[in-house]
Write a structure and sequence with these properties.
This protein has one domain. The protein is 84% helix and 0% strand. The protein contains 15 helices and no strands.
Length: 460
């Protein structure tokens, strides 16, 4: 397969769009098949709303598991892209080999740990006696397929960072289409309910994993999977770069877990499960915003990392501007959608009047700050791509900790429903902080890299 994107020479505007759009579509499709799972579950006769609350408790745990794929995949791919920019192919291959071994080890270890601890986790993170059976069924089956999920997520980063954005998109679409088809077969055709939805997800992830493996073992790929050259120093470097995005994703999961627990406690026996069902629908809607945002900023990180390795500050600055504008255009559109038609989204999950009204209100509250959210994603992912992971992590954790503080404060002062306003408060305030810090460190960091590259060139 011919490589279509030259990260060091192609026009930046067209390069950003060629990488961002397929990855954005892939993330959107990925989100859709997560939503389809919940949609099918929510429409199971008689038990749909309760089963949806049970799966909602599983959601953040699933995301937490997936974030380990990002730890290795994003950390390794950023480091590999830098080496590619420096024209060091052997070192790039060694990074991929080490990353592949790490993904294999992590997949096996996490499967065992989560299977042994899932009952405790589910109860601690918002499951009630009513919703636990559904949460337990889904979590047990999903965890058994963790191996395929982590490999698929992790390896796809190494496909994207080599410029194969369409192949990366195909990896996700294969899984998404498979899941949508298999969901209908297992949930309603075989009447397997929540178990059927989980089985469909695992099989779909298996298909995505196999596709990614086959592609990265091809001889035609510039940097393909090889064996040997394993190094603790390289593994530590991969983890040091991947730790920031990992903690960002993991903290997202923890926040949802905390929110479910707060809603269950504040709502009490009468409202707790209803609030968690509504929060599950609202969070599903938010994935339609954050998923494509991750696609835009994550899919284009290879441009920044490659040109950072090549010491091309001009291309990095141009790319960052275009990425931010693309994010702002998307979030502005989604803000308008959120104000006008959220009821149509809610209706695919439930026909219950109380749950519908609560969920529509929740979407409108949650999305008040989505436009400022663009700065958070574009600038933090930009800093991560430059290897400035400690700054990116600090900014992200500031936003997450602020969210928790606002949520606890609002629910203690007002009603349980007020927890939904913590999101826009955090998004708006933290966007201002992130932009301020970015403007102070971005140029200094680039200048230091270019100065170092010039010194090395003189010495050589």
């Amino acid at each position: 397969m011919k490589k279509t994107n030259d990260l060091g020479k192609d026009n930046i505007s067209s390069l950003v769009f060629r990488l961002a759009i397929p990855t954005m579509i892939a993330q959107l499709v990925n989100v859709l098949y997560s939503i389809v799972d919940r949609m099918y579950i929510g429409n199971i006769p008689e038990i749909g709303d309760i089963a949806l609350a049970g799966v909602g408790v599983c959601g953040p745990i699933v995301t937490l598991l997936s974030s380990f794929g990002t730890l290795v995949g994003l950390g390794g791919s950023i480091l590999m892209a830098m080496k590619m920019g420096e024209q060091k192919k052997k070192e790039a291959e060694q990074i991929l080999a080490n990353s592949f071994l790490m993904l294999l080890i992590l997949s096996g270890t996490l499967t065992l740990i989560f299977l042994l601890s899932k009952d405790f986790l589910l109860y601690q993170f918002g499951a009630s006696d009513v919703t636990f059976p559904y949460a337990n069924t889904y979590m047990t089956i999903y965890t058994a397929g963790t191996f395929f999920a982590l490999l698929s997520i992790g390896l796809n980063y190494f496909i994207t960072c080599q410029g194969y954005s369409m192949v990366s998109m195909t990896t996700v679409i294969i899984g998404a289409i498979s899941n949508i088809i298999l969901d209908s077969v297992f949930v309603f055709g075989f009447h397997m309910g929540v178990a059927g939805a989980a089985i469909a997800t695992v099989i779909a992830q298996m298909f995505s994993c196999l596709f990614a493996l086959i592609f990265l073992f091809r001889k035609q790929v510039p940097i393909r999977i090889t064996f040997g050259g394993y190094s603790k120093a390289i593994m530590k470097k991969i983890i040091s770069i991947g730790l920031s995005p990992f903690l960002i994703l993991a903290s997202d999961s923890i926040i949802i877990i905390i929110m479910n627990a707060v809603l269950q406690y504040s709502g009490g026996p009468s409202e707790g499960d209803l609030l968690i069902s509504a929060a599950t629908i609202v969070q599903s809607y938010m994935l339609l915003i954050t998923g494509p945002l991750v696609g835009i900023t994550g899919g284009t990180q290879a441009i920044i990392s490659y040109n950072y390795g090549a010491a091309r500050a001009d291309r990095i600055k141009q790319a960052e501007r275009i990425i931010l504008m693309l994010c702002l255009a998307f979030t502005s559109f989604m803000f308008l959608v959120s104000r006008s038609v959220p009821q149509y989204f809610v209706r695919i999950f439930t026909t219950d009047t109380s749950l519908t009204h609560l969920s529509v209100w929740g979407i409108k509250a949650f999305t008040l700050g989505v436009i400022p959210l663009s700065f958070q994603y574009a600038l933090i992912d930009g800093l991560t791509a430059l290897g400035r992971t400690k700054t990116a992590l600090a900014l992200s954790l500031f936003r997450k900790s602020s969210y928790v503080v606002y949520m606890l404060l609002l629910t203690s002062l007002f009603t349980a429903k007020s927890a939904f306003y913590a999101e826009p408060l955090s998004d708006t305030i933290c966007a201002i902080v992130t932009t301020t810090v970015f403007l102070k460190v971005f140029n200094k960091h680039l200048n230091a890299r270019c100065k170092n590259a010039n010194i090395q060139e003189i010495n050589s």
